[in-house]
Write a structure and sequence with these properties.
2 domains; alpha+beta; single chain; 16-stranded antiparallel β-barrel; two-stranded antiparallel ribbon; 20 strands; Porin
Amino acid sequence: MKTTTKARCWTLGLAVAGCAMGMSLPPRAVAEVSDADFNALKETVQKLSEELHGLERTNAVAAQVHQRDQEQIRQLQQKLAETQQLATNTEQRIVEAAQTQPIPRQPIDEATVNHNFMILGDAEVQYAKTSGQHGAFLLADFAPIFLYRAGDNILFEAGFDTTLQNGSSEGTTTNASGQTVMTPGTHDSGASASFDLSFAQLDYVMNDYLTFMAGDLLLPLGTYSERSAGWLNEIPDDPLAVGLVPGAGVGAQLQGAVPLGDSGSFVNYQVYGVNGPSSSNGTGNPDALDLGGNVGLRSDNTVANLHGQPSGGARLGVFLPFPYKPHYDLEVGISGQSGEWDDAGNHLWSAGVLDAALHLGPYFETKGEYVMTRFGSDSGQIHQQGWWVQTGYKLAGLDLEMPVVNNVELVGRYDSLHDGLGTSTQRYTLGFIYYITNTLLVEGDYEFLHSTDPSQANQLLLQLSLGF
């Protein structure tokens, strides 16, 4: 509309200007205007008039379009308001229905379950050549570990050990009359197949510094049973002193770690109560000590753990990384356990363990434990002790750029055992590991034994280990 008004004003001004010019000119000048000039002026006025009408029509169309747009916007706003109201009403009905009806059981998300379930473990095949005997494949072992996460704070883990081993050699036993008789050996390897539960425990993470555990627990008497058993051990067999303490026990445990400043140092702790050792035949004889502990019912439906008093134990350790040196660290720990072991509750069994581990870079490690146990028996107090130290060095630390050499680790171990019953053993072990991959290993060692037990002899051990 503004464009039309401007055009009218311009045309009116032009006409007024023409009249003014005509009036101001003298009669002679007016008379000099030709018909051609007049027609040209008339044509110009007509064109301006046509343009004026065109602008008026355009403005009318634009006004109509604007009006339609405003109507569409109004309709859309109305529909939007109706949709929002419908959504609000639906949400309210859903909430009301949820409050009045039980929540249906949701189907299990198979992908999530599989993601929270893992299988780890190891498998070994071992060959042995004992001095004075024929060499043979000694055992085949498969030890899976099942891990399951039931939530952010709930974990479950269980380990099994399936072993196929050659039959027992010739030995002695005591008959019903108390006489010692010889027992024949057997070559039936299938007769010594075994399937054992190594551990099974439920873990509940209470906070960043405390975890509650219950079940058949790996006991923190030292660190070997928790961190070095199986294929994680650089030598195919266990240190002798490990046999002086139980590796697992049924009970409950609290464990955690507390940082010491911002240096990466921390204190780790474990406190537990378990059934503990017991008597294998109900007597207080020293040879009846059963470190595995009894649980459940015997064949005569008698509760197996007859002494009835659980054992208590704990471990306290400190981890100290070297400042500004990655892979350089020291850990030391002290642990112990004590409790009744005989059915009558007259005798105590107790143990103390000192452990340490040192890493000097990614290629050198040394670790060891000192174990001491005491237990009373019908024949008096039995004192046992043993210790071991083990060192390994990866030849990749020499930086020789030789593929075969770089895959080799040299290992050595010294261990000693005094069982308190008259047998003392010292053993020197030298060996190697060849890493086919990070988890597939060929292990070999030769063991030099010095023992008061004449059945003990030097031996060569070869083992193929797979960790998964």
